[in-house]
């Protein structure tokens, strides 16, 4: 009996304590100015009955709880990204800059914000455009060089010079350089197929500062705005030699979105005219990434490259290389690294996996290895970054080919050095050093690292997991 009484007393105390604690939590929340104002407003509603007021105050609590939860989740996400994988970017890492019924622009900017490890590419930014059939992207310019890669679809691009516009057709695989400050517009010239464009932004030549990917739109009025509406009315009247009323009427009339559908006739009217003058205009036209033979190609995949040495590509001054890797389903690229280039990789098709070794990230738990294994699941629309010198590998799923478009910055003198395959840096090591370093007969070392295939190999995806599941 005595024991029972003690137990129930303990229970009672515990109950009291927890009641006190929960009260403490509530009063802590009450101190939050936002929830206080919210509840205050509930009490002030004259038309509310007592019950209405209570419901209203409960809603304040609920809202506050949701907000706290959201904040907590956000923090957790950030922690995970920061600590484990600053090199892989998902859709939530993109900012939506333009979002209309007929198209949108997503931007990945400020690589340095995500991690100091990405400061080598802090001056670069990536934009992704999705434009619906027969839609028009209004004329705009950037204070950065823009290198366009037409991932999919058919486009017309118009580039404005001092006194006229040059137009070009863009096909899948086309690369086009838009010099800094050049006003441009785009058209999806197909009625049904969506147009996908990836655009790398980098500082104008001989400048070096982070780019911000903010567009200067020439057309527009007040909503959406034209860059001109930032000027005072007096200045505009004088500069355009137009009376105030006429100008206001004109700007008020401008209600078009940044991206909008246009008529078939307008699309045809915007088609580039065939030039009979063979020397072309001021701009270098598009250069297709599939023009040159692939640098590597076998049944397991192909790698296409266009770099600064290709004069016709427009990349000659930019120290930039564009590559497209098409990894056959169920296959992988070799483990390799870039000697000089930092790679900004954009997954355009399929899905797969990515692994990279990085000595800069510290393991949270103590571990015998100090090369942090970075890994990530890849999906179309994702971006991953591979700094120079970091060995990495990509694998395609069994279901689909994995297509990756890469912007490789600092590409001059860059080499891709592999750890496995016909040519690899381990086999290339001189015999004496190899035997000293590996403490193994040279032929045996070569046997491990060499194989007949080069660059792309077959890969058994997820075999271990499947066996474990079964
Ligand atoms: C990738 O390669 C396959 C053939 O293996 C081909 O059918 C497909 O069109 C290629 N994709 C791209 C984007 O080049
Ligand atoms: Cu690293």
UniProtKB/TrEMBL annotation:
Q: Where is the signal peptide?
A: 1-27
Query: Does the keyword section mention Signal?
Result: yes
**Which Pfam families does the UniProt entry name for this protein?**
Cupin_1
Q: Which InterPro entries does this one have?
A: Cupin_1, RmlC-like_jellyroll, RmlC_Cupin_sf, Seed_Storage-Functional
- The residue ranges of the Cupin type-1 domain are 87-248, 287-446
Keyword annotations = Signal
List, alphabetically, the PANTHER family matched: CUPINCIN, OS03G0336100 PROTEIN-RELATED
UniProt name for this protein: Sucrose-binding protein-like
Report the source organism. Answer: Cicer arietinum (Chickpea)
């Amino acid at each position: 009996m005595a024991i029972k009484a003690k137990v129930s007393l303990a229970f009672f105390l515990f109950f009291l304590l927890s009641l006190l604690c929960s009260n403490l939590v509530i009063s802590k929340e009450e101190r939050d100015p936002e929830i206080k104002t919210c509840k205050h407003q509930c009490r002030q509603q004259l038309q509310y009955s007592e019950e209405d007021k209570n419901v209203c105050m409960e809603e304040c609590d609920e809202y506050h709880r949701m907000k706290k939860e959201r904040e907590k989740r956000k923090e957790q996400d950030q922690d995970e990204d920061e600590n484990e994988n600053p090199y892989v970017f998902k859709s939530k890492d993109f900012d939506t800059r333009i979002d209309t019924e007929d198209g949108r622009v997503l931007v990945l900017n400020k690589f340095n914000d995500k991690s100091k490890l990405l400061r080598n590419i802090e001056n670069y930014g990536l934009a992704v455009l999705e434009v619906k059939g027969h839609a028009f992207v209004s004329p705009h310019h950037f204070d950065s060089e823009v290198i366009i890669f037409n991932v999919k679809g058919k486009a017309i691009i118009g580039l404005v010079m001092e006194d006229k516009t040059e137009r070009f057709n863009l096909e899948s695989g086309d690369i086009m350089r838009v010099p800094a400050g050049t006003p441009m517009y785009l058209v999806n010239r197909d009625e049904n197929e969506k147009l996908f464009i990836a655009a790398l932004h980098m500082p104008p030549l001989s400048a070096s500062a982070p780019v911000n990917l903010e567009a200067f739109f020439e057309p527009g009025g007040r909503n959406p705005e034209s860059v001109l509406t930032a000027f005072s009315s007096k200045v505009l009247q004088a500069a355009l030699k137009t009376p105030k009323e006429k100008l206001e009427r004109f700007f008020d009339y401008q209600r078009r979105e940044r991206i909008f559908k246009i008529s078939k006739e307008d699309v045809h009217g915007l088609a580039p005219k065939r030039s009979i003058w063979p020397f072309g205009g001021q701009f270098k036209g598009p250069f297709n990434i599939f023009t040159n033979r692939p640098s590597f190609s076998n049944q397991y995949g192909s790698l296409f490259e266009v770099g600064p040495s290709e004069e016709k590509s427009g990349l000659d001054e930019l120290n930039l290389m564009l590559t497209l890797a098409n990894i056959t389903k169920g296959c992988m690229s070799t483990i390799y690294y870039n000697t000089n280039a930092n790679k900004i990789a954009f997954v355009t098709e399929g899905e797969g996996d990515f692994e990279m070794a990085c000595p800069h990230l510290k393991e949270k738990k103590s571990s015998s290895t100090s090369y942090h294994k970075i890994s990530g699941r890849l999906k179309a629309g994702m971006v991953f970054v591979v700094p120079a010198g970091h060995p990495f590998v990509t694998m395609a799923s069994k279901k689909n080919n994995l297509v990756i478009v890469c912007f490789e910055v600092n590409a001059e003198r860059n080499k891709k050095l592999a750890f496995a395959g016909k040519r690899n840096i381990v086999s290339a090591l001189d015999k004496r050093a190899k035997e000293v370093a590996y403490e193994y007969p040279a032929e045996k070392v070569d046997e491990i690292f060499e194989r007949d295939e080069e660059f792309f190999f077959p890969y058994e995806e997820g075999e271990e997991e499947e066996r474990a599941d079964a």
